[in-house]
Amino acid sequence: MTHRKQMLTSIALLGLAGCLVLTGCSGDDAEPVAQTKTKVKVPPPPPPPKVASIDDLKRQLNIDDRVMLSEDVAPAGLEDRKAVLTFFDAFAKGDANKLRPMVTVADQMALASLVDSKQWDAATGDAIYAIEVRTGSSPQGDCALAVIESDQGYEPQLWYYSNENGRYTFEAASTPPGILDKLSGADWIKSWHAIIAEELALADQPDDVFSVPQVSLEEESTTTSTRSSGPGMAPGRNMPTGPGREAPGKGTNPVAPGGR
Q1: Is 58 within 8 Å of 85 (Cβ atoms)?
Q2: Which of 67, 84, 167, 190 is most buried as measured by Cβ atoms within 10 A of its Cβ?
Q3: What is the per-residue burial (b if ≥16 Cβ within 10 Å, else e) of 71-86?
Q4: What percent of the chain has pLDDT over 70?
C-alpha cells in the first residue's frame, strides 16, 4: 500500500514537472493584463501678459495730461503704445530735441526750419490745449491721427510710424486742405484715406470732365457772406463730430514738422 502511494506521488510530481517544462503551467501563458497608463495633464499655456493701460503708461512715462489716447483707439502692443504717447508728448511740451530723433530725415529738416523761425515755440507747448490721438492701420502701415487744439482752433495731423529693431520712426502724411471738415464715421483714419483716394481719383480726371458753374454776381454776393461765417481753411474752425462723439473742450493747432 505504501509502495503504491509512493508511485502515485512520483507520477503526480512527474506530471507537475512536465507541465512546468512543456506548457508553463505556472500561468505565464495567461493573457497579459494591460497596464493602464496614467495620462499626464499638460497645463494650458499661460495667458499673454496683460498690456499696461494707457493711464498706467502715462504715469510711468510722465506723459502730459493734454495727450489723450483712449483704450479703444490705442495700439495693441506695449511698445507701440509707449512710442505714440512719447511722440505726441513732445508736441505738448514743445520739446523739439525729444521729437527730432523720432522723425524721418525730411521731417527733421522741416522741424529745424520751424525751430529757427520760432514757429515751433509759438505753436507747441503752452499754446496747446489738448492733443486727441487715435491709432489704426492703413495700406501704408500703422498710423496715428492727432487732432491738436489751440486758441487757433483744431488742426489734424496724420503720422505713419514703424519699428525697426526697437527704434520708432514717424513720418508726416500729406494733409489736404479742409480735411478735418470732411472726416466722418467712427474710423477717422479710414475716412482720411478714403478722402485722399477720392481726391487722387479726381486729379486723374481729364480737364474737360469738369464744368464751370455759371453764377450771377448777385447770387455770389449773397452766398459769400454766408460761407465766410462757417468753418473753413482759417484757424479756429469747429471740430466735426462723428457718431456718438462730442468735440473736445480745448485743443491745439501747431504746424506739423513734415506736414505737406
Answers
A1: yes
A2: 84
A3: eebbbeeeebbbbbbb
A4: 65
C-alpha cell at 46: 499661460
Q: Which residues contact 96 (CB under 8 A, 6 or more apart)?
A: 90, 111, 114, 115, 120
- Grid coordinates in use for 56? 498706467
CATH of the domain at 159: 3.10.450
Number of domains in the chain: 1
Please state, as a whole number, how many other Cβ atoms lie within 10 Å of the Cβ of residue 111. 19
- 150 found inside a domain: yes
Taking a C-beta distance cutoff of 8 angstroms, is the pair 183, 156 a contact? yes
This model's pTM is above 0.85: no
Does the residue 137 lie in any domain?
Answer: yes
Contact residues for 254 (Cβ-Cβ < 8 A; gap 6+): 91, 120, 123, 124, 127, 128, 148, 150, 155
Cell triple for 127: 499754446
What is the average per-residue pLDDT within 213-217? 47
What is the C-alpha separation between 195 and 173, in angstroms, rounded?
13
Task: With respect to residue 240, please indicate whether it lies within any of the assigned structural domains.
Answer: no
Quick one: pLDDT band at residue 44, thresholds 50, 70, 90? confident
Per-residue pLDDT for 21 more than 50? Answer: no
Domain that holds residue 82: 54-205
Q: Give all strands of the β-sheet with 128-138 in edge-to-edge order.
A: 67-69, 128-138, 141-150, 153-164, 167-172
Question: Contact at 8 Å (CB) between 61 and 85?
Answer: yes
**Would 256 be classed as within a structural domain?**
no
Largest CA distance in the chain: 153
